[in-house]
Amino acid sequence: MTQNIYKLTILKLDHRPERDKRITTHCALVSRAFGADEFYFSGIEDKKLIENINKIKKTWGGDFKIEYCKTPLKFVKELILKKWYVIHLTMYGLNITKEIENIKKIKKNQNILLIVGGSKVPREYYEIANCNVAVGNQPHSEVAAISIVLYLLDSNQLNKDFEHSLIKIDPDSKIKKVINL
Amino acid sequence: MTQNIYKLTILKLDHRPERDKRITTHCALVSRAFGADEFYFSGIEDKKLIENINKIKKTWGGDFKIEYCKTPLKFVKELILKKWYVIHLTMYGLNITKEIENIKKIKKNQNILLIVGGSKVPREYYEIANCNVAVGNQPHSEVAAISIVLYLLDSNQLNKDFEHSLIKIDPDSKIKKVINL
Questions:
Q1: pLDDT for A115
Q2: How many angstroms away from the CA of A71 is the closest CA of chain B?
Q3: Domains observed in chain A
Q4: What per-residue confidence (pLDDT) applies to B142?
């Protein structure tokens, strides 16, 4: 769906279905809508989450992939060995407004992994990441952090069509208009 | 905290503490971090939510206000009578990328209310809003929608300091640095 040569992948750490169900779902939906290629989540396996996102994909199109990641630290280390650029999104990191131009340049030549945290992110992720980046240094939301970074990487994404969709919205100022394709 | 003469207020409809606890919390935190002045939520009253956001405000500064709104449709109608500009954020609306310049102009002369939905938003809100606006016409998240609209209205917000905070982050590429003020 995206026209990148290089992949943009999201890893959401420490999913807990009881507590995080909707947050992780929103993280995945935002990743898809804003142009990421893949979404992995670690923590507790959750087939219902995968099913829900795949249902959305079937209806709304695109070739977004969602998968469970059992061993996230090993996964990140493997990507680093494969020369991926790893960004950990955390409120403690360097402000995205200063880092975005550098990240845009990197994206032209390397696959990118964006890691977003769970409750407490182990120190290893701060150390292993190529860069720790903050979407502002205030507490807010991993859902917002993903959306802002992806929007800054490709602001045209919000106007793009998704291939093979079954329905499509006809944008309107006053009413709901849905087109069956 | 914001330097607007005119107010920017968020209304989150239909809060259900059991199901939406973290989503509404994230909506409020994003509203604060990205520069809104006030946050109202309708649905079920939730003192814990208000307490949590006020704790964040005490620690991290600013003068953001959160309040429960018992009668949201009445509230919106009253603001319209007071010449507020009301934007309903919905995936069925006009794409924000086309509407943002118009909204920026309006913000110089009018208070703005941004409404974000719950599960099913009653038709009245679509009709009563001055405009229905979509952050892309794909399903994703009210948390992301708020963050993108507020970011587009004031992209400098992510670099601003919040007044009267007890702590502050010293942004770093590798470790957590917190300054006690």
A1: 98
A2: 22
A3: 8-180 (3.40.1280.10)
A4: 97
